[in-house]
């Protein structure tokens, strides 16, 4: 990995609660927890009463949010920023939203009174903000319509290829192709949900709704609500929803004491490394498709999302009732197709965060440190194949720093982020694809053993 602040220790297995381990080489980040003894670095702060719990600071002004949080379009994520500076999160989440700027102007506000809570007081954050403005002025936030056309054409062509293979009798290969493009619909809707695809919110959201609804059977609005919480506080206990995965998964030993502690099943978690790819990913996908996501669309009266999901199941019903495949074969084929897609998307997402150290519920770090310490990159590999395979989300550090930036620009931005991190002695963590996958599964096994044996 690329880092000036990482120590390498050859061990058989790792120790502690960070869960970062490999069988041959363990690279311990500066904030790793060892043998239960955790020394808090200076950039990790404890939550304290700042006297501003009913306010959020944005660009030097405190805004009253007690009432607004109930009608905030992004949900209750505002609660994560009570009493502190949310300037970086506000800027990135609302970069293209004129509506957000107008809503902000309606809130009661006042200038900061010298609270010393401004994120600009952190030299790393200050230089990050300067870098972001440089990148904006150089056009890195501008979308490419040619790239959008390629991404949309790709999912259409892959679906056509998958159905053609089915028609030719190549059933397994056809379902594999359809499963992979199902996952690629997930990558595509992800960019639409960040408003970084076309850069036009009124276009990106409908693209997300259709691609995610028809392609994956899921709700774009529910995904946005949950995913923004992840971006606000990646790897923070009881805040990052990507850690709220019990009873099926536990990515870090600290989760056993979190809000889902009553869902821990020691026997299942002990075997989670072996169950993750063949079983768990399918259970998660089916739970999302048939319960969590349609329930959210129904509760929030997003009938256009339900209509997109319905198109997907009308296609399945047609194959069951109007072809020679038969109901049973189509049902089994559907399960296999969903398993391929969910394995593809969930395994690739897992490598970027799940083995990284966590932040406790009463701790906090800066926007930049969340990206540097709690995400990692996967190297592009020969001919850049990983960039295609993960749709540029192998550059997770850049994605968490600049979530509104079109993702295909991340490789160009990466050297400048590395230079910023090196200047401030911050780790820029990156691995080869298969090394990252091995570390991810080693972490699952380690957490499973620690949970089972105590």
Write a short abstract of this structure.
This protein has 454 residues and is mainly alpha-helical. It is built from 16 helices and 9 strands.
Characteristics of this structure?
3-stranded antiparallel sheet, mainly alpha, two-stranded antiparallel sheet, globular, 454 residues, 16 helices
Element layout with pairings:
Elements: E1 7-9, E2 26-28, E3 45-46, E4 55-58, E5 61-64, H1 87-93, H2 98-105, E6 109-111, H3 123-137, H4 145-167, H5 171-193, H6 201-216, H7 220-232, H8 266-270, H9 272-299, H10 303-321, H11 327-350, E7 363-364, H12 367-374, E8 377-378, H13 385-389, H14 396-401, H15 410-423, E9 430-431, H16 433-453
Parallel strand pairs: 8-9
Antiparallel strand pairs: 1-2, 3-7, 4-5, 5-6
List low-confidence stretches: 1-37
N-to-C order of helices and strands:
EEEEEHHEHHHHHHHHHEHEHHHEH
Distance between the termini: 31 Å
Instruction: Characterize the biggest β-sheet.
Output: 3 strands, antiparallel
Mean pLDDT: 89
Using only C-alpha atoms, the radius of gyration works out to 22 Å
Strand content: 5-15%
Describe this structure in words.
The protein has 454 residues and is mainly alpha-helical. Helices cover 52% and strands 6% of the residues. Strands 4-5-6 form a 3-stranded antiparallel sheet. A two-stranded antiparallel ribbon has the order 1-2. A two-stranded antiparallel ribbon has the order 3-7. It is globular and about 75 Å long. Residues 1-37 have low confidence and may be disordered.
